[in-house]
């Protein structure tokens, strides 16, 4: 099962990347801004999927590195600011959605808003996991954090 996943994930890294490139090209062939941004959104998601498949390959083939206390502190400090920023963006997009009545613009704002909510949730989960991890010293801490954050950060999770 894991071997199949490894083979598939390896293939998908370049497939998703190529797909992203092609879709971006399609988006340059017309000038309708809303349709354009929808295709660009899918293209960027596909680039992200390519990176996620790359992470799957690494998780299956490499030992997850243990995070030092310094690294945990660096992540904690680094994401603190971003948690606040994402919260502001959640608020901003909610306010804009309230003000704007054009359904096309609402659609775009809604997509941004949904992303911001997900980003904020994911960073909060990461922060919580890191706070808990500080009291642990097992070599598999990182793997635990990684799994938990990924699952809890998933849409609707
Ligand atoms: Fe994809
Ligand atoms: Fe964001």
Characterization of the model:
This protein has 157 residues and is mainly alpha-helical. α1 runs antiparallel to α2. The protein binds fe (ii) ion (FE2) (2 copies). The site of one fe (ii) ion has 3 residues, from α2.
Largest sheet: none
- Compounds present? fe (ii) ion
**Estimated radius of gyration:** 19 Å
Extended strand count:
0
How many angstroms does the end-to-end distance come to?
25 Å
How much strand content do the residues show?
under 5%
Give the overall average pLDDT: 85
- What overall geometry do the principal axes of the alpha carbons give? flat
Helix and strand topology:
Layout: H1 2-27, H2 33-61, H3 69-99, H4 103-133, H5 141-153
This protein binds fe (ii) ion (2 copies).
Key terms for this structure?
single chain, 157 residues, mainly alpha, 2 domains, disordered C terminus, binds fe (ii) ion
């Amino acid at each position: 099962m894991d071997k199949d996943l490894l083979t598939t994930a390896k293939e998908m890294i370049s497939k998703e990347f190529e797909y992203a490139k092609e879709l971006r090209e399609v988006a340059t062939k017309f000038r309708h801004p809303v349709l354009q941004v929808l295709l660009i959104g899918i293209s960027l998601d596909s680039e992200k999927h390519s990176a996620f498949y790359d992470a799957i390959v690494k998780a299956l083939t490499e030992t997850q590195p243990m995070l030092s206390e310094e690294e945990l502190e660096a992540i904690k400090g680094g994401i603190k600011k971003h948690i606040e920023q994402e919260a502001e963006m959640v608020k901003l997009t909610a306010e804009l959605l309230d003000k704007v009545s054009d359904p096309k613009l609402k659609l775009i704002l809604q997509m941004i808003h949904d992303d911001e909510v997900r980003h904020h949730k994911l960073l909060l989960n990461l922060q919580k996991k890191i706070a808990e991890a500080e009291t642990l010293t097992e070599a598999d801490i990182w793997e635990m954090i990684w799994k938990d954050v990924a699952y809890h950060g998933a849409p609707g999770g």
